[in-house]
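Exam revision sheet. Question 4 asks you to relate a sequence to its structure. Input first:
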Amino acid sequence: MKKQVRKIQYFLIGTAMLFVLPGCLDIYFTTEIKPNGEISKTVVFEGDSTEILDVYFPFMEDESWEREWIYIDKDKSKLILSKTFKNAKQASLDLNPDDSLPYIRIQPELNKKFRWFFSYYEYTDLFLASNPFDKIDWREYLTEEEVGLISMDEEDREADPGYNKSEYKTVEKRFEDYLLNSGFEEFFLLFMQALRNTNEIDLKEEAVLAQKQELFKLAVAGKNDYADAILMSFQDILDSADLAKIGQQNIELFGYFDKKIDFFESVFDDNLYFTIRMPGLLINTNSNQIEGNSLSWELDSFDAYFNDYPMTAESRIVNIWAFVVAGIAIAILLFSLIWSVFRRKKA
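Answer key, structure tokens:
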């Protein structure tokens, strides 16, 4: 799948991407559900320390997380972040804030059900869809089945009964078309917003909208990826002085687009490992890696590029106190019956 994704990356906004992509990180997410409903999260990053610092997570700079650096050798380090949350809602605020970029966003959900002798725990870590360019619905280009084929590595794809080599080339082309168009649409909407924000320019929205298709062709032909380069490609059609003002007065707006480009270029190199540890006896899960009450998933961001990916687990614990209370109640009842019989006989 890595080879497939790297091939796909060449098509976003026509970028050639001939530079060396950053090395991959191994990222381990471990979740432990406590019987009282608390959720402990540990995230471990392994790889080059510079790349660890560059990776985007909304909680990377959050001082409420405990952190520990371990230097393995000159080329490899480990950063360990950990925090315990009172409930799933608090965990979700850290792992999936409203203003976060669509990198690895986790939405936890925990339901605890009391059934007298047993308590049941239903937990889900929902790996939210990570497509950074979602202004166009991918369903206009691809079906669910085709997305499944695209996400597979070559060996698994060829073994899939729905795979046809010649037909797959057209699927791949539609996927590339989607990436090109969705990436450009994201930039174009930001550009129109920047146009409205910019003072003292003659460029009108109507004129830009009329040239949208030509601007798209320029962006693709110029093999541009970051905002500044795309703006420069527009100079053949739009007034260059106005473009300069638009860029200068909207640095933060276009910086948001550049962050999405950075995400797209790097995210697929990371290996993601998830572990969930449940209290009590495991009774249900969608994991195929089970060891006791510890469940594991090995993913990368493409597994949740278009659709959310749920990691689910359900367990139960014995409420010993309930058995004790029930035993005492039964003992009292028996004693009352025996005492009642004894008193009748005595009378």
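Marking note for examiners. The longest strand covers residues 76-85.
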